[in-house]
Each structure stands twice: as structure tokens, then as C-alpha cells.
Amino acid sequence: MIKKFIHTSDWHIGRKLRDFERYEEFRKFFQWLEDLINTEEIDALLVSGDIFDNTTPSVKAQEIYYSFLAKISQSHCRHVIIISGNHDSPAFLDAPAELLNLINIQVIGTACENEIITLYDTDKNPEMIVCAVPYLRDRDVRTLGSGDSYENIDRDLINGINFHYAKVFDEAKILSDKNKNISVVAMGHLFTHGGITKPDDGVRSLYVGTSIEIQSEIFPEFLTYTALGHLHSAQKIKRENIRYSGSPIQMDFGEAGQQKSVYIIELDGKNLINIRDVKIPIFKRLERISGDFDELCAEIQTFQNESVWLDVTYTGEETIGNLSDRIKDFVKAFSNVEILSIRDNKTAPESDEIKNSARGIDDITPLGMLDLFFDEKKIADDKREIFAKMYEEILLKAEIEE
Ligand SMILES: [Mn+2]
């Protein structure tokens, strides 16, 4: 029987902050997670999507992922179930599925007919039913009609997603009635109504041109627990047992200082005994600081030996021509401090220099890029709206998520 399982999501392996790589943080997180699995004697690990940060993960990102899976397969943990998120390539995740299956790791990258997984114990008795629904893409749930209005696209998407989940849960209920003593757990990667996002938390909208939220009522009462992915802050939705675990590392400066966690869910047969959130250590501190030159220097000095990345905003009255160089010079004496971006509120709150240097191309969404283009060409507001709608429609058809 499964006594304990872990719910985590939104790893975003390979994610950068500005142009800085974060592999070190990912390695430390996976080492920590492996240790947790061993010390807590975890039976199953559920990962609710956004495994990688993009659809073509780097070799390093893949190495981190597969090394972790290899180690877990040798641990106390008997089952790993992974679904894709909106950042993942379903086909990429699915490619090694058969091989991973041999070491009890089940991957559902693409929406399919086999999203209900029964887990078996070493005596081949069923011990848990998992409804592993990956992120549902437009093409999975909606038949594309030409000339659809936006309301229709929204409505059809919502209906399609609801229908998909309802079908899975109907089947799971039948299975559950046949196996009365085992738990049923749902996994999904979606925006559930009531969920909270924060500015700059790295959550990317799911469907281009729409902000679709799904009602939590789609998750029926018979589910022991619902393990969701997509929102980056840990939170529960309406009931105690419907949760987002959030991302394991702070995604951007908007999340600076936010405590990250994974959930350990404790079961007795089919009954939920306890949900614990286990705090993840901060492997790299992110801080936003602002002030005049002296205040900034004083703040920088407070970061003793701790490794920290800074987002700096100068708010002084005096115009400092070589501000960036002066701050960087000052920081040279502190090997633990690195400055990722400097904004000068005095001269240019959003100067081109910042746009180009602080933000890599990866951080700009297709619609953001269109905005930059409009700015450059000085396109009037009413025209922008029309062009933006057309552009969104093209993106939707091409199935490139924002
Ligand atoms: Mn995510």
C-alpha cells in the first residue's frame, strides 16, 4: 500500500534568470528531493507538468532530469508519474516513455486514451489509481473551425477541457468502485478558478489570447487528492485536498523571498491522513533593492557571505552618468553578490538598454515582441488592437503558446 507520496510540479529545468544559468540550483534541489524521498520513505512521486522550461531542453537540463530519475528508481520510491505542462514538448517527454516504464516511471506527455494508471505493489495488487491528465492543448480538446469568434474559442476550449476530465473521472469512478480500498489521485496542469498568480512569477498564459479558468468542481469528491501544476505559488483551491505545489525555485524577482515547498501526502488505504508542506531550502537568494547610491551600497554590504542575485533600481535625485559602472565597481569587492539588472528611475524607467540587456529574448513573449515592434514603428493604439487580434489568431492556429 502507498503510505506516502510527494506532489511537486513546475520544475522548469533549464530555466535562466535574465541571461544567468541556474543549473546549480536545479542540481541542489534534486539532491535535496532525493534525500527527502529516502529519509521519509516515500512510495510514489507525482510531478504535475512543466518538467523543462522549454520544448527543446539543453543537454545539461536533460542530464539533470535523467540522473535524478535514475537515482529515484533505485530508491524506496516505487512509482514516479510525470505529466507534461504547457512549457513541455509532449513528444519529447513521451519519447523515452517505454524505457522509463521498465523502471516504474510513467510519463504521459500527450493527451491520450490511457491517462488512468493503476499502480501495483510488489505482490501485484493494485495500490493506487492515478488520473494523469497532461496539459490539454487546443488541438486535444477543440475542433478548430475557421472564422470562430473569440467567445466561441473560449467556450469551446472550456467545454472541451471539462469534457476530457469528466470522461477520465467517469472511468476512474468505475475502477475505484471495483477497488474500494485504494486511493484515487488526480493530476492536471491547468488554471483552476480561484488560483493566484503574482506579477513576475514566470507563469505563462495557457492559451493565446484567452485567460481560461476551469472550475474546481470538475474534481469530484471521490478523489483522495488532486495534484495540480501550472501556478508557481503553493496553494489550495477550495478544498484542503486540491492543491498546487508551486515551483521548487523562485522563478523571478517577483518571487524573491517566497518560501517554496513540496507536499507530502500521507494515506491510510484510501483515506487521506495528512498533508504536510516541506520547505525547500533557498539555494540562491534573489533580492530586489532600491534607493540612492549610498543606500544601494549599504544594502549590498548587508549580504554577508550568502550567495545572492540582485535586481537593482536607482531612485536617487541626482543624475549619475556612469551609474551602472559605479555600482558594478562597488560590487566587485563582494564575490557572493551578482547584479542581474540595474534600472535607473532618474534617467529612464524602462530604457532600451534595460530592455536589451536585462531581458534575454527568451523572456519576451510573442505578443511582447509585437508590442516592441509597434513601439518602434509608432503604430496608433486602435490599429495595434486590430493587428494584435490577428496575430493572436495566427499564433493560436500555429499552436505556439504565448
Ligand atoms: Mn510552470
Characterize the structure shown:
This protein has a six-stranded mixed beta sheet with strand order 6-5-4-1-13-14. Strands 7-8-9-10-12-11 form a six-stranded mixed beta sheet, with helices on one face. It is globular, with a radius of gyration of 23 Å. Strand 13 (260-268) and strand 14 form a beta hairpin. Mean pLDDT is 89; it is low at 351-359. Helix 7 packs parallel to helix 8 (323-331). By secondary structure, it is an alpha/beta fold. It folds into two domains: 4-280, 4-Layer Sandwich (Purple Acid Phosphatase, chain A, domain 2), CATH 3.60.21; 285-398, 2-Layer Sandwich (Double Stranded RNA Binding Domain). The two termini are 41 Å apart. The protein has helices at residues 23-40, 59-73, 90-94, 97-101, 138-141, 150-178, 293-302, 323-331, 352-358, 366-377, 381-398, and strands spanning 4-8, 16-17, 20-21, 44-48, 79-83, 105-108, 116-120, 126-132, 183-189, 225-229, 235-236, 242-244, 260-268, 271-280, 285-291, 308-314, 337-344. Residues 10, 12, 50, 85, 87, 203, 230, 232 line the site of manganese (II) ion. Manganese (II) ion is lined by residues 10, 12, 50, 85, 87, 203, 230, 232.
